[in-house]
């Protein structure tokens, strides 16, 4: 993405040099340098639109940015779930998240707010300025606007789940804007924009898949299904009609996949989930794009602390590691727990490619890049170009299974979607007739916890369901009062929302009060 952006900017700069050639010194001093780009001079040709869109994609990578020593922004959505803990405990903000005592000053909370609104601001520029670019191929313009709407909807979807009522900004802002200090909009209004954006993206002529990593139709439809599923649950509680919308939309992707299994499918092995050569393909419907020329994969905090699993030798931070209780909660024989085969590893090779050794505990293997770090007898490239999954086809199947069950109990199609996840894990699935609606509901939830773990998804399930997986009982507790085994702390009502960053409340009086339960300003 960054390379494309740089290429387009270079073209603009070269044009600027050409334009200044025949102009005299006096006249030149009176003119604004054409290479000093502004929003009024930049959005004039189709290449500008492509470059601006690339900047929106690039801004999504905020989740991989640092959040102090031994921590990254993405850990916000893992530390709160109780499925991970830390071996280092050297980052006070991260420790506060694990201990459920975070507030409006916690770095990860502040960084997520700023990062999401940066995506939104960049998207608003594109949506405001690109329509006026002429001449420009109509299909290209529609596609760019559709991709941008998908990205803006994705940012708002994350934000509204984290903070509830939030500022709803849909146009570029300056200090002179009448709503430069915006008030908080209702969740209903935010979700309306999200759905409208995704429906526009769905109609914008996107291909079903795009190996370049840009938004595609399968990703848009799955995201829309996920939004409907969330709206059916808490806090909007729209119920059965929205479960049906979610099921129908996910089924559109499943129907296409069944007819085109080489295009969309589950990977045959879990290794393919974190293999460089399978990026943006088959199961990976949408990913954050990483390349060391611009930004390397940001999931290093999953590495064990000071164990030589990579070419760097004894390194890593171990600041996000699985809890033993969660690892042990998988069914016996689940392939996802098999060492170096599934989503965890308990042994590796010294310095990435040397003698095997025991890690002494399970660690997250889902984001481990063998190509970069090395594997048995093969030195690593030292270039971690692995993307970060955002939407996988596995989630599409589980969305459908859950939503369809809520519409009218477990059907054969819902059961088949659910069973596909378990078949890949080499698990035996009870016959359809043995499930009630209630037991099938919890079975699907359990698969979501075990299949989608450590992909920044679990926290949102906890919030929309008001339920949390109990690793000891294999059942589900109410959110409020559930004990996170990572810290032995109980979740409270206030934890359903994050606190508004303190500086935002200080700078913008129109935000008014802090979210309930957190200290104000």
From TrEMBL:
Q: Boundaries of each SusD-like N-terminal domain copy? A: 49-229
Q: Which domain of life is it from?
A: Bacteria
Domain (RagB/SusD): give its ranges.
341-518
Give the UniProt subcellular location, in the record's own words: Cell outer membrane
**Gene Ontology cellular-component terms listed:** cell outer membrane
| The keyword ATP-binding is assigned to this record | no
Q: In which broad location class does this protein mainly occur, judging by the first location in its UniProt entry?
A: membrane
By what name is this protein known?
RagB/SusD domain protein
Source organism of this protein record: Spirosoma linguale (strain ATCC 33905 / DSM 74 / LMG 10896 / Claus 1)
């Amino acid at each position: 993405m960054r390379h494309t952006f740089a290429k387009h900017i270079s073209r603009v700069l070269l044009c600027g040099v050409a334009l200044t050639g025949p102009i005299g010194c006096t006249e030149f001093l009176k003119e604004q340098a054409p290479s000093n780009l502004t929003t009024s001079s930049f959005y004039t040709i189709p290449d500008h639109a492509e470059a601006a869109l690339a900047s929106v994609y690039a801004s999504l990578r905020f989740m991989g940015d640092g959040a102090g020593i031994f921590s990254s922004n993405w850990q916000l959505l893992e530390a709160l779930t109780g499925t991970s803990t830390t071996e280092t405990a050297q980052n006070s903000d991260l420790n506060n998240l694990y201990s459920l005592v975070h507030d409006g000053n916690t770095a990860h909370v502040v960084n997520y707010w700023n990062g999401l609104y940066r995506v939104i601001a960049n998207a608003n520029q594109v949506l405001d300025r690109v329509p006026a670019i002429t001449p420009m191929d109509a299909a290209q313009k529609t596609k760019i606007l559709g991709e941008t709407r998908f990205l803006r909807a994705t940012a708002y979807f994350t934000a509204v789940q984290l903070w509830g009522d939030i500022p709803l900004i849909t146009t570029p802002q300056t200090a002179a804007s009448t709503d430069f200090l915006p008030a908080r909009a209702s969740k209903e209004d935010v979700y309306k924009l999200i759905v409208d954006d995704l429906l526009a993206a769905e109609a914008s002529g996107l291909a079903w898949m795009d190996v370049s990593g840009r938004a595609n139709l399968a990703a848009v439809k799955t995201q829309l299904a996920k939004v409907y599923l969330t709206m059916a649950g808490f806090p909007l509680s729209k119920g059965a009609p929205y479960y049906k919308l979610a099921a129908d939309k996910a089924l559109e992707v499943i129907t296409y996949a069944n007819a085109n299994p080489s295009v969309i499918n589950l990977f045959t092995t879990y290794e393919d989930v974190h293999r460089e050569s399978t990026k943006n393909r088959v199961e990976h419907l949408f990913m954050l794009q990483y390349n060391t020329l611009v930004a390397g994969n940001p999931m290093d905090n999953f590495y064990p602390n000071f164990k030589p699993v990579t070419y760097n030798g004894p390194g890593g931070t171990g600041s996000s590691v699985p809890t033993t209780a969660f690892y042990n909660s998988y069914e016996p024989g689940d392939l996802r727990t098999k060492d170096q085969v599934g989503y965890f590893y308990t042994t590796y090779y010294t310095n990435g490619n040397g003698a095997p050794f025991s890690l002494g505990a399970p660690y997250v293997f889902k984001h481990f890049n063998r190509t970069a770090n090395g594997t048995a007898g093969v030195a690593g490239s030292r270039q971690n170009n692995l993307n970060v999954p955002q939407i996988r086809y596995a989630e599409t199947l589980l969305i459908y299974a859950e939503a369809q069950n809520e519409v009218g109990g477990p059907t054969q199609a819902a059961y088949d979607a659910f069973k596909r996840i378990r078949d890949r894990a080499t698990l035996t699935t009870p016959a359809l007739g043995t499930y009630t609606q209630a037991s099938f509901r919890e079975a699907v939830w359990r698969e979501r916890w075990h299949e989608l773990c450590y992909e920044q998804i679990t926290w949102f399930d906890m919030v929309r369901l008001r339920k949390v997986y109990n690793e000891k009982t294999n059942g589900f507790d109410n959110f409020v009062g559930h004990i996170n085994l990572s810290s032995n702390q109980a979740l409270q009502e206030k934890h359903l929302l994050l606190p508004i960053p303190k500086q935002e409340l200080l700078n913008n009086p129109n935000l008014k009060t802090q979210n309930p339960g957190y200290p104000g300003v």
